[in-house]
């Protein structure tokens, strides 16, 4: 998702009439929510098990990535990308410990 988003963004700017600032907000909001998701899921992984949290974050990330494909405007996409970022950060936190 993170790699393809940079190719899709110019198309969204043209189709939805977004400003470059709004495009930047989409990327920034996703990364900020990933930081929050990593912190929260790190705690949850310690408490409830890393494998279980890893499974849940993968499901969370995949679900909101799928739903983001159906966004009709900037606000919907922003909301879905924030939720997607929570799962993305959680995957990194739980996965890094499981792999390391």
General description of the model:
The chain is an all-alpha fold and 100 residues long. The chain has one domain. The protein has four helices and no strands. The longest helix is centred in the middle third of the chain and has 29 residues, at 20-48.
Structural topology:
Layout: H1 2-16, H2 20-48, H3 50-68, H4 74-99
Summarize the structure.
The protein is built from four helices and no strands. The chain has helices at residues 2-16, 20-48, 50-68, 74-99.
Question: What characteristics describe this protein?
Answer:
100 residues; mainly alpha; 4 helices; 89% helix; elongated
Q: How confident overall, as mean pLDDT?
A: 94
Low-confidence stretches: none
Number of helices: 4
Q: What is the element string, with H for helices and E for strands?
A: HHHH
Secondary structural class: mainly alpha
